[in-house]
Amino acid sequence: MFHMLDIAILGLLMDRDHHGYEIRTQVRDRLAVSSNISFGSIYPALNRLERQGFVAAVVANEPRGNALSTGSLSGERASLRALRATQGLGRRSRKVYRITPRGREEFVSLLADPATLDDSRNFSLRMALAKYLTPSLRVTLLERRRTDLMKRLAEMQTGARNEQLDTYARSVMAHAAKGVELDLEWIDTLLSTERSNQQTFAPEAK
Amino acid sequence: MFHMLDIAILGLLMDRDHHGYEIRTQVRDRLAVSSNISFGSIYPALNRLERQGFVAAVVANEPRGNALSTGSLSGERASLRALRATQGLGRRSRKVYRITPRGREEFVSLLADPATLDDSRNFSLRMALAKYLTPSLRVTLLERRRTDLMKRLAEMQTGARNEQLDTYARSVMAHAAKGVELDLEWIDTLLSTERSNQQTFAPEAK
DNA sequence: GAAACATCATATCAAATCGATATATCGAAC
DNA sequence: GTTCGATATATCGATTTGATATGATGTTTC
Questions:
Q1: CATH number of this structure's domain A4-112
Q2: How close B106 comes to chain A (CA, Å)?
Q3: Could you report the average pLDDT of every consecutive run of 10 residues in chain A (206 residues)?
Q4: Which residues of B touch A34 (CB under 8 A)?
Q5: Who contacts A17 (Cβ-Cβ below 8 Å, separation ≥6)?
Q6: Domain boundaries in chain A?
């Protein structure tokens, strides 16, 4: 229903065209997903999205006159590679995908979806794409996440105090609890930023 | 090959017998896995493990004279439920699984496996079961994880400084980096504990 | 006291995802 | 000069997920 990979792919395509292999690296480098998603996920997902009319294959191995280069820049000797890439030379032929108008609609509705509470991976992905959300939707999402985390924190802290567990299991619990605390601090920072921005543009009080 | 769910199930069964539903709750409460694994994973996994001879179904709805109760104790009014459970009454009939000698062998070899670097979820699971590892294997595992995290930290920090990213994406990156830092602190604490223990029992220096 | 709802418990299905592998080109290293 | 690593797409089987079915029993509420 709410496939996170779809959100990631569409989110990246909102910005500019990408081919499959590039999406894989970008998910890691721009969307902060710690493990590379597998090719067995990415290519079927692109086919699915194409079938549904949310993306369209633009060209294979396009000559690309636009100066957007190939992606993972910030490389030391990226200039040479970029030169080749702009000429469409080298490598196996690429299948470049572009998001369709319907895809853009689908993306924002997926991103804002009111369903399912998300785990930390999903939530991070959503936040990495939060610029496409309205301020009020951002706040809603953040508050929902905050509630989930508060509940989870209590569970973890209880677990960390469970004397039936051995040292290692308790240590894992305690560490997990600290992770949740860190998440909560982050959420609160983001929430206060959202609120001060809201106040700037739409002053309610006074 | 190195199915994490198998490790979790066998790890729980090392301690005592469990039925499927109970394993699900225990993975959360004792092994600190934050989201409940689905039934579509747990029951097929148990069948698979049974087929391979690593676990055996002991009884369905056993009268259970042992006082081990039903699991998630620490409940407020657990006494009543425990009473019923000890009598084998109530609920749909349970299929209780027990680990076999071959299963125990498989478990330790899976837990100690030298292959695949694990993500944070996998690593936490391993650590929650670390009491079944030898001290030197624990140190090996911890050091390997430490190396991975150092690498990951550098990537995240680079990402957080990437000015091509918008505020939200950068914030996610920075937060992820903090998470990795927290993980590293934890690893280092565990490592120093391991080393001081090692010194206590097998003094090398002097 | 019965109707409604939550919890316990196993099971199965389609769809999604993963890990591995195949294939091929190119640049770099040795 | 050839092995290695990165780029690039594709597919396969096995695993995992999310949803749903089924049913018993315990708890709450009117």
A1: 1.10.10.10
A2: 21
A3: 85 95 93 89 95 89 41 37 40 86 94 74 92 94 90 86 91 94 96 86 60
A4: 119-120, 152, 176
A5: A58, A96, A97, A98
A6: 4-112, 134-201
